[in-house]
């Protein structure tokens, strides 16, 4: 009995395929509509999927780390400022927790106004120890000048955008106006030794100077710095390692409670260094441990919005496609009404007639999805071939200058499931009407 | 928000007023003057802690390649309770915008929306070019040690040129050079230096004064930004009064009412 049922289902499936083949033009149009919808959704999902990863990796490159430890000190008058003085405990804790770091950066940051003649720009200059930060020298692209010129203690590397804004050329002398960590006014003379290509909205953060000189301007001692960055081999495990570091550090030093929310109010790049957000009083250095994830909460929100937009498009697109499928299947039913009557007359059950229509819809959906996925892969592949360059305004969301896409498996499967269900729902009403036709009445009907 | 944008400009300029070296009592003239006493006199002269203070400030700012900007504010101060109010009178587009400071809290009032936005002095400093010492009275004696003294001439005035070094690393300027008239402890010029010993700004107090409550308030102050060449501000003070102000002056309701 079961074998008969299986046989009849297989026969109906074959019949459904033949019906689709019989009306090629219509099938191609409907399948094409589904494929188009799938294409759009897959590309948006793919973009959203890679967005967070690309931003995180690019920010990690700029900030030289995935996990950051900063230190805060309170002066006698209660003023809080950022500094890590003796990092022996911190270094030991990193060693003990066996965090698989590619490299460790130690930086200070001078925020202020860079002035050249009558032009000025707000800027964050990252103080870098170029003798130890080989990763930066290997990754940072220089468009004019050279890294070698950073042997000049007062050397400065600016983005082309900032250099243009100031109308400054390599070799020019600039003034950096800033405040020391304790709030005193200070001024430094700097020489532009190199420029980097524009990096979109973070161009103003792509300014580098020697750590020793930045420390001098901030009134920090040699050997001190503000933030230690741990650069991991990948984004995975970032929170786990940060938690382990926090727990271990807490047993040996004063550590600010880790809240896992943005300590700097979203995408506040300035917060990568010298976050002195503080409550209460303490003596000595109080550490705080943050990760890229903690800081990029705003980016996560953007991804959330992208996902919602993608879902909205999915629903709207498929409501339109559903209406098309519904009308097409209703027309098909009327066109085949005598055929249905004949099949019913020779013994086909109502359920089998309904299943015939539903299977046609399902096959259509599967074919449309397969074509859509293939097209999406093709489009994403082609888009990712274009090299927009590291000076693109979209730099932060690109992967080494290229668009990249990543469709999360779960989300892809969910989309496939939703499309299949929506297509079946659209075909259900015409299928039910076809199944309910009385054979005699159907045979009498003339088109 | 325009109120917020201008807040730091006005704060900085008001600070200059707070720090403005006024004059009241002339220390006895001797051959070897007591410079600490002179600085004490200068400090004391800017102290309005014992009475309320109100004035109209007109600030003209010049920047290279930009049109001059004019700001006029009506200022009310009660230093005893760390209260301050200012209401924008010019430019016309910002007329009625107001600012209320009570201790560390500040409220900005926007007459267009009729809404107040709350902030703190700390936040304002972080978001502006204001310097921490700009927002409190400068005490030369408390904050600085006398490093060097010399005699000089400033225009037709014989002056003492006193160079001060910061006592701690929390005052805005590591070093200050004052040119103080020999005949009275009136500062004619103040030069502020960075930690790296670079001249950052020069403040000139032309010798025209408004005499009030036994003090001499410089009616004009010229601030030159020595780093941003061509940037300077001129502040004129008028309608100065030390009459007691009603308590309601330092309230949000007053800002609301004054904007109408």
Mind explaining what this structure looks like?
The complex is a heterodimer of chains A (447) and B (260). With 447 residues, chain A is α+β, with helices and mostly antiparallel strands. The radius of gyration of chain A is 32 Å and the shape is elongated. Helices cover 51% and strands 18% of the residues of chain A. Helix content of chain B is 18%, strand content 42%. Chain B has a 13-stranded antiparallel sheet with strand order 6-5-4-3-2-1-15-14-11-10-9-8-7, with helices on both faces.
Side by side, the strands of the main sheet of chain B go: 6-5-4-3-2-1-15-14-11-10-9-8-7
- Helices and strands of chain B, in order, run as HHEEEEEEHHEEEEEEEEEH
Strand content of chain A: 15-25%
Low-confidence stretches of chain B: 1-5, 15-29, 125-135
Protein chain pair with the most extensive contact, residues per chain: A-B, 21 and 23 residues
Number of spatially distinct domains of chain B: 1
- Percentage of residues in helical conformation of chain B: 10-25%
Number of helices of chain B: 5
Distance between the termini of chain A: 38 Å
Percentage of residues in strands of chain B:
35-45%
Cα-to-Cα separation, first versus last residue of chain B: 19 Å
- Structural class of the helices, strands and pairings of chain B? alpha+beta
Q: Which regions of chain A contain 5 or more consecutive residues with pLDDT less than 50?
A: 262-277
Write the layout of secondary structure elements.
The complex is a heterodimer of chains A (447) and B (260).
Chain A: H1 2-22, H2 24-63, E1 67-74, E2 80-82, H3 88-96, E3 103-116, E4 119-128, H4 134-139, E5 144-145, E6 155-159, H5 160-166, E7 173-179, E8 185-196, E9 207-210, H6 211-218, E10 227-231, H7 238-252, E11 254-255, E12 285-291, H8 292-295, H9 297-335, H10 337-345, H11 350-385, H12 409-436, H13 439-444
Parallel strand pairs in A: 4-9, 6-8, 11-12
Antiparallel strand pairs in A: 1-2, 1-10, 1-12, 3-4, 3-7, 3-10, 5-8, 6-9, 7-8
Chain B: H1 2-19, H2 35-45, E1 53-62, E2 69-78, E3 83-90, E4 98-102, E5 105-110, E6 115-120, H3 121-127, H4 140-143, E7 144-154, E8 157-166, E9 175-181, E10 187-193, E11 199-204, E12 209-212, E13 215-218, E14 220-225, E15 232-241, H5 252-258
Antiparallel strand pairs in B: 1-2, 1-15, 2-3, 3-4, 4-5, 5-6, 7-8, 8-9, 9-10, 10-11, 11-14, 12-13, 14-15
